[in-house]
Amino acid sequence: MGTRQGEQAALERALEGVRHFESPSMQAALLAPSTTSHPEIERLLDPEKLLGVRVLSSQKLLLYESWAAASSSAQRTVSLQAHSWPAQRERVARWVGAGNERQILIVLPLPGLDGTLSGYVEGVYHFDASKLEREIWRSVLLAIAAVFGTSVLLFPIFLTLLKQAAQQSRRILDANLSLLHALGSATAKRDSDTDLHNYRVTLYAVALAEKLGLPYVRMADLIVGSFLHDVGKIGIPDAILLKRGKLNSEEFEVMKRHPLLGLEIVAGNPWLTGASAVIRSHHEHFDGSGYPDGLSGNDIPILARIFAVVDVFDALTSERPYKAAMDFDAALAIITQDAGTHFDPDIVAVFEQDAKAWHEQTACLTGDALSAQLRVSVEKYFVTA
């Protein structure tokens, strides 16, 4: 037990020990004409608790004192103590003496029948450190036993509540994943007639982020953002979105709106708002030449910088209705060439280390296999209980 905690407990015990003197009958006895003894007071004295009592007038003159079996040195120490005098309805409690012989001095004001201050009573309380500590530890152990006993009795209830909470959390997660899949599929159907790109880029992004040491708490936002990165294309007209040739300047300006349209689509859904960084900024370039905000360098959110690399890589290595798939080496050469202009060079350097293995593991997977792989990441990074 800490010293301060023990001393505070001792002071509280001492205050309890002298509260007898606050009763009207005891105050009447204390303020009665001085006699050689006051039986009412002396019955309270105890060598192990209340050592002595001193009664003083309102002018602080000693009217009466009585001591239990206490040493003369203890009486002398207390009688010589200077202390503050409490106002009515207040108390003073302080330590006197030194070492193991310390006592606690309590001073109480004594109101008269008319309510004015009539005098003071000083009570000297014995402090046995070892006994107090034993009592406090006994109380602590009893409290621990009570808590443990209660916990044992309530454990089945706790277990049921936790199970129900986990089941409810699982249902909410499944509903949100269904929403994620529906939005991703709707986007893919409008753009390339397949949603495999969404699965692949999400798996690539997770692998790259893990390699970079992205904080655990950011991974869920990266997963949702990667899967929904192009959700704003739902709002782009078919004539522009499905055009086979190169877009003219006016058409490209319309296409550049899709990140902001994506933000509008996910707005208001707390589970999807973490995707905003990827949705808004995945077309920003490291040199500041991207859109929609013209951000550069580290001003581009880290999630968007990670995703930009894998998004372009998968676009290059995937077959689309309007192009054939590029082989791995040629695609990686383009990524490397654009490090420092389009992409964060530090992220590209890490991507190069394992890109071939990730591509071999992912590019050949079918829709069901990709979905199963993504489910593993979801189970790892989304809290379900």
UniProtKB/TrEMBL annotation:
Enzyme Commission no: 3.1.4.-
Parts of the chain that traverse the membrane: 140-162
One Pfam family of this chain: HD_5
InterPro entries: Cyclic_di-GMP/3'3'-cGAMP_PDE, HD/PDEase_dom, HD_GYP_dom
Gene Ontology molecular function, alphabetical: hydrolase activity
Gene3D superfamilies: Hypothetical protein af1432
PROSITE patterns: HD_GYP
Record's protein name: HD-GYP domain-containing protein
Source organism (scientific name): Uliginosibacterium paludis
Lineage: Bacteria, Pseudomonadati, Pseudomonadota, Betaproteobacteria, Rhodocyclales
